[in-house]
Structures are given as structure tokens and as C-alpha cells.
Design goal:
Number of helices: 4
CATH class of the largest domain: Mainly Alpha
Distance between the termini: 44 Å
CATH superfamily of the largest domain: Winged helix-like DNA-binding domain superfamily/Winged helix DNA-binding domain
Strand content: 15-25%
Shape: rod-shaped
CATH topology of the largest domain: Arc Repressor Mutant, subunit A
Helix content: 25-40%
Radius of gyration: 28 Å
Amino acid sequence: MEETAYELVLEAGSKGILQSDLWKKLGVNSREGSRIAVKLESKGLARRAKELYKGRWTYRLYANKEEETPITWNTLNDCPCFTCVTITRCGAAQPISPIKCQKLTNWIQKQIMDF
């Protein structure tokens, strides 16, 4: 029953669903509908927001669905350090330094621009 209720809350999207509409669609009484809504909230699947609807206080349920963020895999592909012939002599206190390396600077700037 909770799974069906959660699906209905998800289907309602960003506008949410009134708790009374939820229990009516589930075919249960208000007491059972309230219990289901509280269970969804306690499991972190939904949040309930108190709302005045047609002169009566009720709750509107919203899905606690995290927005899916596309994952970008940012690797060190093409980093000039991996193919540099002077890598063994490169260092912060050395004459050859990542701080002064134009190839590394250009690569970093490209990474920033591509981001």
C-alpha cells in the first residue's frame, strides 16, 4: 500500500497531492491514509506541508526525490605532466616548476573553459 501511495506522490510532481486525495485514490479511510502519509514521511520518502484547503487544515505531500545531477567524470586526461620529459626535475623549489609551466597552465585553463 505504501509503495502505491509513494507512486501517487511521485506522479503528483512538484504540485504535490493532498492527503485526502491520496487516501481516496488508495481506497482507504482517512485514518489509514494519515498513517500511510506519516510512514512515508518517517521513511524520508515524502514531506508533509500543512495547508488550508477549502476552509479546512490538511496536508499536502511532496516527494522527497533528490534531483538527479548528471555526473561528469573529470580525469587527468591529456595532463602534460604525464608525458613531460622533465618531470623528474620538476618541483615547486626547482628551476623547472609547475608554477611556471606554460603547458600545464594552458591545460588547466582549457579544463576550466570546458567545465
